[in-house]
Design goal:
Shape: elongated
Order of helices and strands: HEHEEEEHHEHEEEEEHEHEEEE
Number of strands: 16
Helix content: 10-25%
Structural class: alpha+beta
Oligomer: single chain
């Protein structure tokens, strides 16, 4: 079925609205498919005003049987996800508050979107910024992060502008059906915002909240005579995790990398270590370009993950033993 079916609300193709709204709702890009494929996706905007039209006990039904539809959830005002039902192709209804519970509680909740909008679709091919290769990686990993300049140009390996758009994708399973969530976050380089020096077992640490590509983070640490953090024991990892999570439970760069030799991980200071704590299935070099290590991919669980080095994340610096 290709036509959108919604109950108790109007179906509003976003790109039929006034051009003044276009920057906020993404009309310019959502109708173009990956790798040159034309996708005639219908855009549907869901707002607090739509929920206000419901009678007592009624739910707003979002129908994923309408396969070529992008649902934009706009939360500049309150959205009660307990009043939104996600309807899969077989007619099963699942409350959005239940289906997205874990994602909404995660460090990369869709409610951190800069434009106050996140997107759900039953077909990742509907999302203009995803290539066929990206979709394979997303289905394998369950999450994917891409970056682009605000004008939309993809960047590799790092931004040349002051700001990049970080696009975070998650897959969730709703009544046995795959649904993809897209969230866009504007990440801007600014003056470094690092913690006071923290000390553990004779080493000094800085926890830096400004988000940088791995190489830029390493260069910043070097300006202080430090390196990206090296983790040599479970006790040190416990300290690093606890301190980092006081600032943010999102991802943090550490010094681990295999940039010199694929599959051979060393720390940024050249050390190897008998201690490691890769999360199950990691490192996996998904997409063929994951060469740098980070924490908190699987928050709240501990465990390291490999990611493309050009992505912008917070970072941890460590000094030599005092």
């Amino acid at each position: 079925m290709t036509a959108s079916r919604l109950f108790r609300v109007l179906t509003l193709p976003l790109c039929a609205l006034s051009l003044a709204l276009a920057p906020a709702i993404g009309c310019s890009g959502d109708e173009a498919g990956p790798a040159g494929e034309e996708v005639a996706a219908t855009n549907v905007r869901v707002t607090e005003a739509d929920l206000a039209k419901l009678g007592q006990g009624e739910t707003f039904k979002v129908d994923f049987g309408a396969r070529e539809t992008l649902y934009h959830f706009h939360f500049d005002r309150s959205l009660d996800y307990g009043r939104i039902a996600l309807v899969t192709e077989d007619g099963t209804e699942t409350l959005m508050s239940t289906a997205l519970a874990d994602l909404l509680a995660s460090p990369y909740s869709p409610e951190i979107a800069t434009d106050k909008t996140f997107v759900l679709t039953a077909q990742p091919e509907n999302l203009a910024d995803l290539t066929a290769e990206d979709i394979v990686k997303l289905r394998s990993e369950g999450t994917l992060v891409k970056e682009a300049t605000p004008g939309g140009k993809a960047i590799e390996p790092q931004a040349e502008e002051d700001c990049v758009t970080q696009i975070v994708y998650h897959t969730i399973i709703v009544a046995g059906e795959e649904v993809v969530c897209e969230t866009k976050i504007l990440v801007c380089d600014g003056e470094p915002a690092c913690s006071d020096v923290k000390t553990f077992q004779g080493h000094d640490y800085l926890f830096c909240n400004n988000q940088e590509p791995w190489q830029d983070a390493a260069a910043y640490c070097s300006s202080f005579g430090m390196r990206l953090a090296t983790i040599n024991s479970i006790n040190e990892e416990g300290f690093v995790h606890a301190m980092a999570n006081m600032f943010s439970t999102q991802k943090w760069w550490i010094g681990l990398n295999d940039r010199a030799t694929e599959g051979v991980y060393t720390w940024e200071n050249g050390e190897t270590s008998s201690y490691s704590n890769w999360y199950a299935g990691e490192p996996n070099n998904a997409g063929g370009n994951e060469d740098c290590g980070q924490l908190n991919r699987y928050y709240p669980d501990h465990g390291w993950n490999d990611e493309p080095c050009g992505l912008h994340y917070r970072f941890i610096c460590e000094g030599e033993e005092n």
